[in-house]
């Protein structure tokens, strides 16, 4: 039988077929954070159960941790502090490895896990966080789960899993100069919609993805969930194998050879059938920026905001009207030149070393615009140290950026990094929902290079203009 990569991964991890639509799925790795695990551990304690396979669970404090510069991390608010201390207590009780606030390698779970070689092609990886789709960049099936499912996984290392449909998105060609993986995925979400991949696992393929670095692939797979996808996959190639082997120090000798042999089988069969297929040309891509309150409300930097009056669908018209009202934008006007007051560069989408290097290239020789507060939050302690060693951190600080400690930070306002009402932010994050970065705050999603350009000019700016000018 010809199978997609998705079905190969599911079949290899199916412990039992429960019915036509559901299987009992074995999970190779379960990542936990401080806000989706407390009730799960309480449920275990209530029934006198232990964690079945502690070594295949890892915990990271990332969402509530403060990112102010300093050697000691203190969570001052009572509720987040309790979440972090409960996670530490539960991990100690059940022998689960933990990256706690004082760990030098602490960071965002979706940055920390792959950089330590925990994520490998062919794995099933789950976490109480929707952006677990990130790991598809390495050919691993990652997806988010709920708190009740967290308890089930802790107790059994399995999950009752409803099968998804297969979608393939092929993008061939070369991305134009000044256009990045973030721009491409924003363009794709804009085309298929925020529910365009609902109920599906997306397999990304084509020469555009083959040419991407692994870090760029992380960005693409991370944001697939913003199109409603239940998962995202890119078949592992030599780049993926090299990335993993450089970090998975336990893979050597016979184990390394066996792993490489297995990874070569992880691709969709030539005659495999997908429920939905899309094709795009990479040369059509351009820097993209969101104008509204959903990641699919996005346009190329040279475009204009939509006019609700021209939309035939009543729900779409109402949604557009509400988004324009919330963001304080008029219909039919260009985004370029819109003043911003804040820039946030970070999150599990764009806080890796490649992202920070891109920011440094734009910023070099320039300074943050007057009246703009610009923050850079590296994705992990390892990224922070590397950026400091490469001189990126000092370059950014000299240019007027705040250089923070690692964590989720202003991606979701669950910590002290919160925008005030009415502040407009150029952000490298993955969501621009109402109130996402602070009650009444306005978020425009864009690439790290575009965010850097906004910081320098004080407005939403086509970074290609700056690069040409700088040259």
TrEMBL record:
Q: Which UniProt keywords apply?
A: 4Fe-4S, Amino-acid biosynthesis, Branched-chain amino acid biosynthesis, Iron, Iron-sulfur, Leucine biosynthesis, Lyase, Metal-binding
| Enzyme Commission code | 4.2.1.33
What SUPFAM superfamilies does UniProt report for this protein, alphabetically?
Aconitase iron-sulfur domain (SSF53732)
Q: Does the keyword Iron-sulfur apply?
A: yes
* Record-linked InterPro entries: 3-IsopropMal_deHydase_lsu (IPR004430), Acnase/IPM_dHydase_lsu_aba_1/3 (IPR015931), Acoase/IPM_deHydtase_lsu_aba (IPR001030), Aconitase_4Fe-4S_BS (IPR018136), Aconitase_4Fe-4S_dom (IPR036008), IPM_dehydratase_rel_enz (IPR050067), IPMI_cat (IPR033941)
Q: Does the keyword Lyase apply?
A: yes
What are the residue boundaries of the Aconitase/3-isopropylmalate dehydratase large subunit alpha/beta/alpha domain, all occurrences included? 8-458
Query: Which pathway does UniProt place it in?
Result: Amino-acid biosynthesis; L-leucine biosynthesis; L-leucine from 3-methyl-2-oxobutanoate: step 2/4
GO terms assigned for molecular function = 3-isopropylmalate dehydratase activity
Listed under catalytic activity are: (2R,3S)-3-isopropylmalate = (2S)-2-isopropylmalate
Q: Which cofactor does it need?
A: [4Fe-4S] cluster
Q: Which PANTHER family match?
A: 3-ISOPROPYLMALATE DEHYDRATASE, HOMOACONITASE, MITOCHONDRIAL-RELATED
Q: What does this protein do?
A: Catalyzes the isomerization between 2-isopropylmalate and 3-isopropylmalate, via the formation of 2-isopropylmaleate.
**Full protein name:** 3-isopropylmalate dehydratase
């Amino acid at each position: 039988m010809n199978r997609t990569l998705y079905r190969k991964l599911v079949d290899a991890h199916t412990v039992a077929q429960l019915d036509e639509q559901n299987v009992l799925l074995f999970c190779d790795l379960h990542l936990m954070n401080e806000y989706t695990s407390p009730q799960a551990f309480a449920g275990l304690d209530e029934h006198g159960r232990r964690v079945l396979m502690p070594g295949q669970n890892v915990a990271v404090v990332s969402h509530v941790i403060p990112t102010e510069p300093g050697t000691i991390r203190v969570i001052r608010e009572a509720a987040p502090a309790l979440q972090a201390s409960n996670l530490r207590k539960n991990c100690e009780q059940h022998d689960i490895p933990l990256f706690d606030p004082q760990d030098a390698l602490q960071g965002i779970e979706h940055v920390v896990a792959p950089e330590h070689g925990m994520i490998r092609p062919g794995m099933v990886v789950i976490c109480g966080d929707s952006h677990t789709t990130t790991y598809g960049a390495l050919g691993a099936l990652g997806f988010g789960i709920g708190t009740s499912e967290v308890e089930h996984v802790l107790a059994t290392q399995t999950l009752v899993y409803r099968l998804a449909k297969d979608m393939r998105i092929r993008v061939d060609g070369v991305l134009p100069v000044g256009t990045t993986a973030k721009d491409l995925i924003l363009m794709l979400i804009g085309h298929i919609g925020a529910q365009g991949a609902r109920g599906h696992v997306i397999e990304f393929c084509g020469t555009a993805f083959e040419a991407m670095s692994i870090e760029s692939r992380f960005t693409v797979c991370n944001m697939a969930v913003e199109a409603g996808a239940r998962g995202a996959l890119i078949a592992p190639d030599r780049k993926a194998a090299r990335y993993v082997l450089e970090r998975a120090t336990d893979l050597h000798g016979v184990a390394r050879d066996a792993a490489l042999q297995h990874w070569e089988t992880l691709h969709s069969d030539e005659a495999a059938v997908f429920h939905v297929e899309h094709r795009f040309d990479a040369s059509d891509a351009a820097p993209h920026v969101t104008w509204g309150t959903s990641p699919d409300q996005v346009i190329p930097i040279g475009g204009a905001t939509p006019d609700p009056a021209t939309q035939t669908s009543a729900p779409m018209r109402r949604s557009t009207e509400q988004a324009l009202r919330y963001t304080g934008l008029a219909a039919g006007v260009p985004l370029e030149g819109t003043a911003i007051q804040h820039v946030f560069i970070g999150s599990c989408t764009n806080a890796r070393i490649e992202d920070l290097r891109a920011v440094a290239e734009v910023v070099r020789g320039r300074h943050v615009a007057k009246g703009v507060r610009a923050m850079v939050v590296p994705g992990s302690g390892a990224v922070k140290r590397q950026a400091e060693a490469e001189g990126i951190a000092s370059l950014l600080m000299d240019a007027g950026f705040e250089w923070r400690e690692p964590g989720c930070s202003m991606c979701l306002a669950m910590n002290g990094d919160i925008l005030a009402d009415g502040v407009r932010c150029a952000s490298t994050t993955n969501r621009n929902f109402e109130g996402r970065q602070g009650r009444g705050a306005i978020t425009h999603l864009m690439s790290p290079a575009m965010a850097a350009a906004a910081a320098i000019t004080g407005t939403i700016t086509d970074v290609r203009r700056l690069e040409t000018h700088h040259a």
